[in-house]
Amino acid sequence: MNQKRLTTFIIILTTLFLSNLLLTNEKSLAQENFKVYAWYKYSEVDVSGKPKQMNSFIINNQNYIKLDELQYLLNDSGKNFEYYGSNKSDIIKLKPTNKILQIYKQNLDTNYNTYRNNTKNIEPLFELKNFIIGKNKHTLDSFNIDGENYYRLVDILRMLKIDVKWNNKLRKVIISPNIKSKKTKNSASKQIKKQKVAVLMYHHILKEKDQKKYFNKNGSVLSKEMFEKHMNFIKNSGYNTITAKQLEDFIYKKKPLPKSKNNTSILITFDDGYLSNYLYAYPIMKKLDMKAVCFHVTTNIAKQEITKLNPKILERFSFLQMDKSKDVFEHASHSHEFHSMTANKVPYYLAATDSQVKQDLDKSRHLVGGSKYFAYPYGAYNKRLINMLKSSGYKLAFTTKKGYTHDYDNPYKLNRYPIFPTTTVNNLKNFLENAR
């Protein structure tokens, strides 16, 4: 009896592993710090009920294929495509076709002969690639092997809105180009077009008497009393506060956000990592079951915990307090040492060398626990900095520009609504009710 149970348990584990082999591991490999290897694989897949052979590489237990290999798989499905490069992105144009490219397939197979009997580890180079389909822009993880880009099969099919799943009984991948996803017809797809996010930007918080006494002329210090009114207004008015991960999925995966008043969700952010966020904001938000992101200048994170605030000076979170507050705050990057300017008043991120910027971004991200989210110091950025953020594994970056966030916005140029000492509940109400 025990032997039968053991056998059943092993079968269940094996089934779970294989069923997740294709569809799991959503985490971007750009975030990994270890080497990955590629192995060539020639396998059979099912496309609209027809068996087809597929050349692919297995990378991190996932199938990666070239676009021309996918063209062959789809060439008689009515969901074929053509693609060509531009100076910024690859353009994909969907087109129906019934042409069966057998000669083309033979050429594809021949090109893989060098890999078939290769027993050495292949070390692919990670790259991010942009695609434009109609009016929509997509960014996909890819690996470069011998000058050719390979994309995760699941990612490229989802981008083309093609259903794909693992059939455990048949032990193969099932691709269904002619089955339209139900999500394209239901209310969720209509809802996301109307949804938007208001990202609120807070800084330091002090009791009203201390704020007036010590920081009366500082435009970034809000009173604790007014902050609590803001939070109560948001909660009681029916607005939903979201996490940075939900915003990431909203932009990258077009995943609808939870229901919220005026179809406007709220992401609350704090810049600089002040101790007041922990001692004053954290208890209020915890009581109201709200979420927020704290962007830290990581070189300033306190080594020892401070439990009583000195209102005369600017004090910071400790690592221990960051850990204690994770039920409310996600801790993210606002730089390591580069929250400063040169003698010519140029933000350091724009003046430093590539290697200096990369080192600072990586150091800060490491110290906040690997978060994929970043707030630009002084709101300053350029194309080079955005590319450096991408290469370091960041997925979202926030500016200081006033405005709302939509699912079609550039994820590295996200707007925020700045909160000043003079921002009343009515000001906040007007902003949220007039969101566009």
Question: What topology does this entry show?
Answer:
Blueprint: H1 2-23, E1 38-47, E2 50-59, E3 62-65, H2 67-74, E4 81-85, E5 90-94, H3 102-111, H4 113-116, E6 125-133, E7 136-145, E8 148-152, H5 153-159, E9 163-167, E10 172-176, H6 187-194, E11 196-202, E12 204-206, H7 208-214, E13 221-223, H8 224-236, H9 244-252, E14 264-272, H10 275-287, E15 292-296, H11 319-324, E16 329-333, H12 348-351, H13 354-367, E17 373-375, H14 383-391, E18 396-398, E19 417-418, H15 425-433
Parallel strand pairs: 1-10, 5-6, 11-14, 11-19, 12-13, 14-15, 15-16, 17-18
Antiparallel strand pairs: 1-2, 2-3, 3-8, 4-5, 6-7, 7-8, 9-10
Helix pairs in contact: 8-10, 13-14
Q: Could you characterize what this model shows?
A:
With 436 residues, this protein is α/β, with parallel strands linked by helices. It folds into 2 domains: 28-180, no CATH class; 187-433, TIM Barrel. It is built from 15 helices and 19 strands. It has helices spanning 2-23, 67-74, 102-111, 113-116, 153-159, 187-194, 208-214, 224-236, 244-252, 275-287, 319-324, 348-351, 354-367, 383-391, 425-433, and strands spanning 38-47, 50-59, 62-65, 81-85, 90-94, 125-133, 136-145, 148-152, 163-167, 172-176, 196-202, 204-206, 221-223, 264-272, 292-296, 329-333, 373-375, 396-398, 417-418. The strands form 4 sheets. Strands 4-5-6-7-8-3-2-1-10-9 form a 10-stranded mixed beta sheet. It has a 5-stranded parallel beta sheet with strand order 16-15-14-11-19. Strands 12-13 form a two-stranded parallel sheet. A hairpin with a 2-residue loop joins strand 7 (136-145) and strand 8 (148-152). Helix 8 packs parallel to helix 10 and helix 13 (354-367) packs across helix 14. The protein is elongated and about 75 Å long. The chain starts with a helix and ends with a helix. The model is unreliable at 18-34, 96-105 and 179-189 (pLDDT under 50).
